[in-house]
C-alpha cells in the first residue's frame, strides 16, 4: 500500500557498512555503549555510532567494519593528517601509531592485529550487555541474527575492510587461506576487498577525496602495480573461496580489473552464483550531475550504471553512503539527504540485463559512519536515520514494502543467499 503524503514512519534499519569499532581501536577510552560522543576533532565528532544513538534512530542492526589503517599511511603523513583533525587526536593517537597502523613485520602480523580488533569489539558488546544493561549482541550466523533481532537486541555483524589485514608478502597461499578461513569461522560475513592502497589480493581505485588526498600526497592513479588489477592466481583462489564458503564481497575501492575478475568468477558459478555488493557508495552519474568537473580519476572510483546492472543481475545490493563527496562531488559538509534520495532513485531506474527496472530490490543503507568521512550536516549520526526514512517515505509512489526493502529486507535476502553461516 502507498503511504499517505508527508506521513512520518518508524522504520527499522540495518546499516550494512559502518565503523563502531574504529573509535575503540583508536581511542581505548571510548566504547560502543557510551552515551556521550568524543569531541575535540572534526572527522566524525557528531556522529559516532553507539548503541544509544542506534536505538534513537531505529537502527536495529549494523555491520561492524574492521578497518586497519594501512602502513602506507606513513607516520609523517599520518601526523600531518592528525594535525588537521585536532590536538586531542594527536594526544591520544600519536603514541599509539605503531599499535594501530598495519604491522608488516611478518606475513601475518596484520592478521594478528585484526583478530585482536574483532575480539576487542566483541568484548565491548558483551560488556554492554552484561554490565551496562544494553540489549546488544554480535551474531555469528544467519540463524543467530534472526534469533537475536527477534529478541529485541541491537545486533552487530562482522566485516573486514581491506584484505591487507589478512596478510602481506611473502605470505603463502596456504597461510592466507588459513587466515581467511579463521575469520569466516569467527563470524565475518562480508569483506571489502580493496581499500586505499593495493593489497595482497587487489589493486585500489582510490577512496580519498581530492582535498585530503592532496594533503597526504595520495594519487589513486599511481598506487598500483598489478598489471590486471589483482594478484593473479592468488586473488582468484581467495575469491573462489569466499564465493564457495559464503563470504559476501563488497566491491567498493576495487580496481576495475579486480571488479571484472570478481564478476567473472561469480558468473562461472551459474545458478550457484552469490549476491555481490557495493556496501557503501554513491553513484558516478549522480555525483557528476552535481559536480560536472569532478576529476575523472576520482569519479571513476564510483560505480556506474554498468556496475549497478551487474549487481542487479546477481540479486545483490548497493548501500548508499553518508559522505558528501561520493554523493555529490563536493567535499563541503553541506546537507545531502536529497542526494541520498536521488541516488536511491537512480539505482531504482537502472535496468537489469532483462530490462527490468523501477524496483527498490537492490538498495540499502551503508552509511560509512565513523570512518574518516566528511558527513553531510543533515545525516550526522544514526539518530538522524529517522529523518532520512521520513524523506524516503515521501517518495511518490513508494510503498511500505519498498521502504522495508531499503531499510533491512534487501540485505537480509542477500545475507540468506550469500552468507555461508546458516
UniProtKB/TrEMBL annotation:
Question: Which species does this protein come from?
Answer: Mucilaginibacter agri
Write down the superkingdom of origin.
Bacteria
Q: Which residues cross the membrane?
A: none
Q: What is this protein called?
A: Uncharacterized protein
Origin organism lineage = Bacteria, Pseudomonadati, Bacteroidota, Sphingobacteriia, Sphingobacteriales
InterPro entries in the cross-refs: Metal_Hydrolase, Pept_M19
The molecular function terms in GO held by this entry are: metallodipeptidase activity
Quote the PANTHER family the UniProt record gives.
DIPEPTIDASE, MICROSOMAL DIPEPTIDASE
Q: A GO term (biological process) for this protein? A: proteolysis
- List the Pfam families hit by this protein, alphabetically: Peptidase_M19
Amino acid at each position: 500500500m502507498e503511504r499517505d503524503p508527508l506521513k512520518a514512519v518508524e522504520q527499522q534499519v540495518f546499516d550494512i557498512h559502518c565503523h563502531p569499532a574504529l573509535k575503540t581501536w583508536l581511542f581505548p577510552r571510548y566504547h560502543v555503549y557510551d552515551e556521550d560522543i568524543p569531541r575535540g576533532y572534526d572527522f566524525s565528532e557528531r556522529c559516532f555510532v553507539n548503541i544509544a544513538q542506534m536505538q534513537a534512530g531505529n537502527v536495529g542492526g549494523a555491520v561492524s567494519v574492521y578497518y586497519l589503517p594501512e602502513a602506507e599511511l606513513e607516520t609523517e603523513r599520518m601526523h600531518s593528517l592528525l594535525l588537521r583533525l585536532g590536538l586531542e587526536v594527536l594526544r591520544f593517537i600519536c603514541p599509539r601509531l605503531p599499535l594501530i597502523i598495519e604491522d608488516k613485520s611478518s606475513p601475518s602480523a596484520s592478521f594478528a592485529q585484526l583478530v585482536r580488533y574483532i575480539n576487542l569489539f566483541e568484548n565491548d558488546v558483551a560488556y554492554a550487555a552484561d554490565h551496562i544493561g544494553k540489549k546488544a549482541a554480535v551474531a555469528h550466523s544467519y540463524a543467530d541474527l534472526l534469533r537475536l533481532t527477534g529478541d529485541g537486541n541491537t545486533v552487530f555483524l562482522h566485516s573486514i575492510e581491506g584484505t591487507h589485514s589478512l596478510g602481506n608478502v611473502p605470505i603463502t597461499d596456504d597461510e592466507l587461506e588459513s587466515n581467511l578461513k579463521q575469520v569466516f569461522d569467527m563470524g565475518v560475513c562480508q569483506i571489502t576487498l580493496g581499500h586505499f592502497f593495493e593489497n595482497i589480493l587487489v589493486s585500489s581505485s582510490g577512496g580519498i577525496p581530492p582535498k585530503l588526498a592532496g594533503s597526504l600526497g595520495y594519487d589513486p592513479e599511481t598506487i598500483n602495480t598489478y598489471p590486471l588489477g589483482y594478484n593473479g592466481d592468488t586473488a582468484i583462489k581467495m575469491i573462489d573461496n569466499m564465493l564457495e564458503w559464503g563470504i559476501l564481497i563488497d566491491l567498493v575501492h576495487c580496481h576495475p580489473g579486480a571488479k571484472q575478475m570478481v564478476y567473472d568468477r561469480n558468473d562461472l558459478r551459474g545458478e550457484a552464483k552469490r549476491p555481490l555488493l557495493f556496501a557503501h557508495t554513491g553513484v558516478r552519474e549522480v555525483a557528476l550531475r552535481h559536480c560536472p568537473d569532478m576529476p575523472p580519476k576520482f569519479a571513476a572510483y564510483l560505480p556506474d550504471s554498468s556496475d549497478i546492472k551487474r549487481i542487479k543481475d546477481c540479486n545483490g545490493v548497493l548501500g548508499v553512503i553518508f559522505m558528501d563527496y561520493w554523493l555529490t562531488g563536493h567535499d563541503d559538509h553541506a546537507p545531502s539527504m536529497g542526494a541520498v534520495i536521488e541516488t536511491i532513485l537512480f539505482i531504482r531506474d537502472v535496468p537489469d540485463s532483462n530490462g527490468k527496472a523501477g524496483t527498490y530490490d537492490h538498495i540499502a543503507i551503508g552509511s560509512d559512519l565513523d570512518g574518516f568521512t566528511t558527513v553531510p550536516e543533515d545525516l550526522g549520526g544514526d539518530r538522524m536515520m529517522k529523518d532520512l526514512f521520513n524523506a524516503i517515505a515521501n517518495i511518490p509512489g513508494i510503498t511500505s514494502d519498498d521502504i522495508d526493502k531499503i531499510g533491512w529486507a534487501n540485505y537480509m535476502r542477500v545475507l540468506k543467499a550469500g552468507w555461508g553461516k546458516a
